[in-house]
Inverse folding.
């Protein structure tokens, strides 16, 4: 924040703190917000698990060290 | 009971990044959002009119929660900048009309009503009332553009860099504009 003279700084800070508190008081406990968060976390978790399950099984790597078997004579 | 503080916020966020189980993630997310919800609420309710603000807040919370594991920063400042960037994008994408219409300055009577709501928990002394009166006058004496800047900077707490990003302006332009707005407000009040 800008360097304010003490008077303005104190006044605006006091106002800011109280305004936040009033907003929270007025809208009650944020249980609806926490429900939204829990749902989003659950959704994200399920999505990650689904992504992991749907990853194709990697084929065996074709190592250069391994030469094809020599044809049978 | 152990209460989380803002000092714990970045620790919680960093722990969340490595949390594997669902129950651990939910517990950490609850702790994180108990700390950040009031500030995000203030941000959204300052940007969107009340009719849409509650829905918009839930959209913002969902977007932040969904992306939480992708946050790569290590400081609280970085985390807040990241949260506000997500919030701004969400409001801009989904509430374009309301976001563009920027909330009008709130009347002094309404700001005082909000202040009185806090009196039960924190009594308003004569000196505090004098300070609040001065703060409300500074904010409401300003022209709408200045009100918006002063509100964002001094009430929401957005720094110059965040405001510059939001307005697509450079840092110094925003810093000087806020200084001018404050000087103007002070001259109108005194």
């Amino acid at each position: 924040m800008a360097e304010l003279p003490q008077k303005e700084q104190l006044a605006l800070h006091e106002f800011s703190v109280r305004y936040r508190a009033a907003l929270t008081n007025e809208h009650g406990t944020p249980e609806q917000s926490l429900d939204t968060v829990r749902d989003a976390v659950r959704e994200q978790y399920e999505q990650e698990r689904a992504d992991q399950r749907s990853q194709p099984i990697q084929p065996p790597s074709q190592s250069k060290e391994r030469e094809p078997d020599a044809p049978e004579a | 009971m152990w209460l989380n503080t803002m000092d714990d916020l970045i620790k919680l966020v960093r722990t969340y990044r490595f949390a594997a189980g669902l129950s651990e993630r939910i517990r950490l997310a609850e702790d994180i959002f108990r700390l950040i919800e009031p500030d995000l609420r203030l941000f959204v309710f300052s940007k969107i009119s009340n009719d849409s603000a509650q829905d918009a807040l839930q959209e913002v919370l969902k977007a932040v929660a969904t992306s939480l594991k992708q946050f790569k920063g290590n400081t609280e400042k970085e985390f807040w900048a990241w949260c506000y960037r997500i919030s701004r994008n969400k409001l801009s994408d989904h509430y374009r009309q309301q976001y563009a219409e920027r909330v009008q300055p709130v009347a002094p009577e309404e700001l005082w009503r909000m202040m009185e709501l806090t009196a039960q928990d924190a009594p308003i002394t004569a000196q505090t009332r004098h300070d609040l009166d001065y703060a409300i006058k500074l904010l409401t004496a300003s022209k709408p553009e200045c009100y918006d800047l002063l509100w964002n900077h001094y009430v929401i707490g957005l720094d110059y860099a965040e405001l510059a990003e939001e307005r697509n302006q450079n840092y110094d332009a925003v810093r000087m504009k806020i200084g001018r707005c404050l000087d103007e407000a002070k001259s109108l009040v005194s």
